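#lab-general

N.A. 3:47 PM
ok so I finally got the sequence cleaned up, no stray characters, all 382 residues accounted for. can someone with queue access submit it? mine expired

B.Y. 3:52 PM
send it over

N.A. 3:53 PM
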Amino acid sequence: MKQSNTRRAFLRHVCAAGASTVLLPAFFRANAQTPKLNVLVLGGTNFLGPAIVNALVEKNHQVTLFNRGITNPSLFPLLSKIRGDRENGIDGYQDLLNENRIWDVVIDVWPENPNFVEEAARVLRSRTRHYMFVSSTAVYRDYRELGITEEAALRESEVFEEGNYNANKVLCEQIVAQNFGSNFTIVRPGAIVGDRDPGPFGTYLLDRIVNRSQILAPDSNDPVQFVDAADVGRFLTQCGEQNISGVYNLVGPAETLGYKDMLNNIRNTLNSNVEIIWIHPEFLANTARLEPFLDIPFWIPLETDPEPGFYQVSNAKAVQFGLHFTDLSETVRISYDSVEQNRFIPESDTDSAFGISNDREDEIISLWTNRTTNENPTISQA
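B.Y. 4:20 PM
back already:
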């Protein structure tokens, strides 16, 4: 269905193979001396990449970036950089091959194209002790069950399909597992938010709460899940330090979060005077003709959702192995500062896909406020 496909693709804005080995939980390794790692980050200068690099640098690891030098080229001026373009196939790795170095850890941040992952594996499988790949909870076959774990069925795919984000991520995971034995870590974030996030959490949701006098919202407290980019970076850093392999769902916040609670937290954190007009979900769907998740980002009503597990994915395994969560208020502050200071690269497809116009929101609020039981109003979809 349209909504299911869109929500899977959404995870890229905000990210299958057989058995993996893991070490003892962090509880048993707390006193181990942390080694200083030589880390190669493929990418590293857009959104999630800087969060990963910052986490590594904060722990004094030696970080080298491999990228084209086009996206945010002024970031990390003190770090070593190797230039290359993965879209040029194996030839794009020539400068990296010339280095002839061995890396303790390689972190592959962004690909959804399995061809890129296959080529990286060919170049690096004899040059690293541990390969990490950022996948997505979009790889799961469906979300009908609550508490989806890392062992849940994945989507079936055999060949790369342009634009099929969720199926392509499955293929990427398979290539990583096939090439690195037990020496790999795959993380599956849900929607990612935080610093440099170009998606609708900051650019639409937070912006409206700060800059409008009234906003509409569903009068329901359905669950919401996302993860701060900084938490992804810290978890990957810990996996490198403690040689933690395996597959992990990275979703948060720490406690179950409802949509209404999230909005109230945002309003309080940002000291906003916005009036939230709580509207019955049936009115939003049937009269205003708003589509959950698309027109109201991050909201999916459980009562009518055929896949209620989408925002109820289990993070128990990752928490066992050391995943910690940034406080929601801190995530909100960082996300809003990032938008206010333009610390992100806009994505036009995201801008057009999520949310409604100010005029349409005003119209719906007015109609809700002035409704009578004898009227059956309709609203334009402009």
